[in-house]
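re: that chain from earlier
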Amino acid sequence: MNPFPLRPALPRLVWLLALALLCTGVHAAPKNIIILFADGAAPTQWELGRYASRVLRNQPFVVTDRVFRDGSLGLLSTHPAGVYVTDSAAGASAMATGFKARNGAVSVTPDGGRPRTVMEAAKQAGKRIGLVTTAQIYDASPAAFSVHADTRDEAQSIVDQYLALEPDVLLGGGRDFFLPQAAGGKRNDGKDMLAAFAAKGYAILRDPQQLREAKAAKLVGLFSEKELELEIDRDPAREPTLADMTRAAFQALTRDTGSGSDRGFVLFAENENTDEAGHKNDIAALIRALWAFDDAVAVALEFQKDNPDTLLIVAADHETGGLSATYARSELSGASSLVIVGPKEFERVMRIDASLDAVAAKLGPRPSPALLEALVARHFPGFTLDADLREAILQQRPLERNFGYTTQTNLARMIARQTGFYWGSSGHTTEPVAVGAMGPGAERFRGYADNAEFGKRLLQLIEGR
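^ sequence. v structure.
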């Protein structure tokens, strides 16, 4: 008698197939892919979000505590073609095509090539596709993941290419280049692109209530003429959160279209506010932007929980601002004490109730001393503007050659001197960015790689390789 009989419930062919898959290292390709993109965020920003969430909200930060801890974690170098420091267009282009681009180019290589983008590949594979952002929907990153342009400034062409590509979901800002000048837009060809999308069966959304009530499988939601407001300034009656838009995208992308085919979807969802806050050295706005992004990641994790054939990726294109929380002297001379960042400093920052952009807009290009004093007292309780920074703002004198946005970065230096949240630039830096992945194919993103390698691996998964 054979003491090791084959199990009758599992035919021999099934056992052999399973063994072959194990031996060859073949893994199931994901049905759905969610790319959650925090523009301008690197490990420094993720640690800021984690610590701030713990000491101020007393709750986990799911990017670090779930995705990075439990998933596959990697790092990406970010340099573009030709130089060392990237912009968003070149960074996103490499991640979306697997090929380097020059700064400013949107998925166009230095020799003029237009390699296939992630969304073009997904469309060819029969998947539904969506783009979500807090920036203009035609901004560099969502554009690079889907279409092509010689420069990121070709907003009108990018919108035209969206109409040809037909993403199932477009949610964000940037209504200006969907409307002709006669209707208050910026298009110079007289076309009403919202009408053109509506003619193709899209529901056109203009406010958060319409987003919540949307039942269509194809959505164009544009909630601002330009980019959406920073989270610290956002009016919830006028603009949705990134989590709101991400949730609506899932509902639309999984809605039955009547085609009888369901090959899944690829969704790109970006928080541009993390980059905007970094450019302006706005620590209070950055913390809130990181939390808003984290809320969207939590929504995506819930979707993945119910749909385990989904790959979830948290990524970014570069670091912005050279953020460096540190300890520093409270004064340059005398028996000065050290300012060391801790819970008390975080609490001081969270009492700031407006973005540095909003304060700069109120001050205008020729700030008056009285208005400057009043705005500091109103929006920065407990902070004192040193005389040198006061004069720099009144005279519109930059901090240094690598700092633009004169009013914002001088106000940021006021905050830094009294809390320890210092910044090294108002531009991008070369700090490698983190990639966290969970779900089928996540292991491909582990380790240190170039951003173009990220693009190659992502395209392989979409193509089933």
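The two ends are 45 Å apart (CA to CA).
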